């Protein structure tokens, strides 16, 4: 076996260690950037926002640096689910009234989040100079977090499709209901057929009776995705149809906080642990927030 320490000493003596030039520093910066994850659904009412919030809390509890970004332009409600009153959103950053760091708020257990997607649509009317300033400000966040979770809107609206296209990956939330399954596949199909640069998709089945039902739902979507899209859509896991979830929603408290030992909370813990084990590693292709916004503005979807 090669003595790695001896090899390192030999490289130092021969002055053959890589030099810290500008290119290496840039590459190193890229390796520290957050992974940008769009969480979406084919239709509304499947519990997507609740899933996003509780996944973020479980990743946060596991020691990961996580930011939740409410990117639903029509029905932003992450703050409502936490019972937190939001005074500022991205809109105030675009108007030059606040910096991005000023609008980050904190939910249960100190979870950072950006409330309300209102204001993002104004990006389409900004000048190139204003966009550059905005994206540079946002890009600093990429070096401060491991994961940034975008809670997108539901369905196939233009804004949702562009958010997904700009992300590093997409988690699609569905339920066992036939319409939810159909709409989830429709979302995956449209994105796969129109993305110039494919991104990984995965699936979570919410409100499942048990693991077997979730696997049956996953198999239905996976089969047609493989046959017609030549795409694999792995199942990240399922969240049980647990009455504690709705009780927590009514109390405006995340169910993993209010009922940490309930079945749904244990499901979320398994999903978070599995995701951290199986998630694609951060690479030099990870684009950062600036790349995300620039791709979102390309209007290619």
Give the helices and strands, then pairings.
Blueprint lengths: L3 H10 L8 H10 L3 E7 L6 H14 L4 E6 L6 H5 L7 H5 L5 H4 E3 L5 E3 L13 H15 L4 E8 L3 H9 L2 E6 L3 H17 L6 E8 L2 H19 L5 E6 L2 H8 L4 H4 L4 H16 L9 H9 L5
Parallel strand pairs: 1-5, 1-6, 2-4, 2-5, 6-7, 7-8
Antiparallel strand pairs: 3-4
Helix pairs in contact: 3-13, 7-14, 8-14, 9-10
Structural class: alpha/beta
CATH architecture: 3-Layer(aba) Sandwich
Annotation, overall tally of beta strands: 8
The radius of gyration over CA amounts to 20 Å
- CATH C-level class: Alpha Beta
Q: Could you tell me the strand content as a percent range?
A: 15-25%
Shape: globular
Unreliable stretches = 1-31
Keywords: ATP-binding, Nucleotide-binding
Domain AAA: 35-191
Protein name: MinD/ParA family protein
InterPro entries: AAA_dom (IPR025669), FlhG (IPR033875), MinD_FleN (IPR025501), P-loop_NTPase (IPR027417), ParA/MinD_ATPase (IPR050625)
Descriptive report:
With 301 residues, the chain is α/β, with parallel strands linked by helices. The protein has one domain: P-loop containing nucleotide triphosphate hydrolases (Rossmann fold, 3-Layer(aba) Sandwich), CATH 3.40.50. The protein has helices spanning 4-13, 22-31, 48-61, 78-82, 90-94, 100-103, 128-142, 158-166, 178-194, 211-229, 243-250, 255-258, 263-278, 288-296; strands at 35-41, 66-71, 104-106, 112-114, 147-154, 169-174, 201-208, 235-240. Strands 3-4-2-5-1-6-7-8 form an eight-stranded mixed β-sheet, with helices on both faces. Strand 6, helix 9 and strand 7 form a beta-alpha-beta unit. Helix 7 (128-142) packs across helix 14 (288-296) and helix 8 packs antiparallel against helix 14. The radius of gyration is 20 Å and the shape is globular. The model is unreliable at 1-31 (pLDDT under 50). Keywords: ATP-binding, Nucleotide-binding. This is MinD/ParA family protein. It comes from Paenibacillus polygoni. It holds the Pfam family AAA_31.
């Amino acid at each position: 076996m090669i003595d790695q320490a001896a090899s390192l000493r030999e490289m130092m003596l021969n002055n053959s260690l890589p030099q810290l030039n500008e290119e290496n520093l840039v590459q190193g910066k890229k390796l520290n950037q957050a992974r940008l994850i769009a969480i979406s659904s084919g239709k509304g009412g499947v519990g997507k926002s609740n899933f996003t919030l509780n996944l973020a809390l479980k990743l946060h509890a596991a020691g990961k640096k996580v930011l939740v970004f409410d990117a639903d332009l029509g029905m932003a409600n992450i703050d409502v689910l936490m019972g937190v009153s939001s005074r500022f959103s991205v809109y105030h950053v675009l108007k030059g009234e606040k910096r991005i760091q000023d609008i980050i708020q904190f939910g249960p257990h100190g979870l950072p989040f950006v409330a309300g997607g209102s204001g993002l649509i104004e990006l389409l009317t900004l000048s190139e100079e204003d966009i550059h300033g905005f994206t540079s400000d946002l890009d600093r966040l990429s070096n401060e977090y491991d994961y940034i979770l975008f809670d997108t809107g539901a369905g196939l609206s233009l804004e949702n499709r562009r958010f997904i296209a700009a992300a590093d990956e997409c988690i699609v939330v569905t339920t066992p209901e036939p319409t939810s399954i159909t709409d989830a596949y429709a979302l995956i199909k449209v994105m796969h057929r129109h993305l110039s640069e494919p991104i990984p998709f995965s699936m979570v089945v919410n409100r499942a009776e048990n693991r077997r039902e979730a696997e049956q739902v996953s198999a239905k979507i996976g089969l047609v995705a493989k046959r017609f899209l030549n795409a694999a859509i792995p199942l990240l896991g399922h969240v049980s149809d647990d009455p504690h979830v709705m009780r927590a929603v009514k109390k405006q408290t995340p169910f993993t906080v209010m009922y940490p030992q309930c079945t749904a909370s244990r499901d979320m813990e398994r999903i978070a642990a599995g995701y951290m084990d199986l998630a694609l590693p951060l690479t030099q292709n990870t684009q950062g927030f600036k790349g995300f916004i620039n791709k979102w503005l390309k209007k290619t979807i």
